[in-house]
Amino acid sequence: MTEKPQPVRVLYCGVCSLPPEYCEFGSDFEKCKPWLVKNAPDVYPDLLKDANENDLGKVSERLQSVGISIDGAADGAASSVQSAGETSASKPAEVKRLPGGKIKKKEKQEVVIEKIVRNKRKCITIIKGLDLFGIKLSDASKKLGKKFATGASVVKGPTDKEQIDVQGDIAYDVVEFITDTWPDVPESAITLR
Ligand SMILES: [Zn+2]
Fold first, then answer.
1. Which of 14, 22, 58, 182 could be disulfide-bonded to 18 (CB atoms 3.0-4.6 Å)?
2. Residue 34 and residue 47: Cα distance in Å, rounded?
């Protein structure tokens, strides 16, 4: 089978009204580019490539800023609820020395609070990451148990990192308790999941 000859496409640039092939010789190729990418990408394949790369860049930028703003919004909501009137401004993160003088290698300092429900009614609040702020988990666990009059224990989480399991749903009150008890933990570092 022989291919039918393609009908000649009469196409003129919407910007400079030259045939697309001549745009690059026209008066303002830069202005033609967006039109060309849309309408005659086959004439200037490189433009398309550039445009795609730009778009990818933009998308990842956008994703990043979305991520940041989501975090920010969550923190903002938490802080307005938890500590209206409190002025404990978050301190800049600094390198923590563990007992023994070892400098903890740079790991994102973040306390994560998760609530899980086991057996329908039994709820457990899991607190991860206090140790990243140089807090001894066994002490923290005792304090939490006392404060919320419930069972609290240090256990090894799925990734072998130690975490504190607290019986009951204390996720909402625990943020304030943490920032009050350990001022080194800025509220902005606490994530409620
Ligand atoms: Zn043009």
1. 22
2. 9
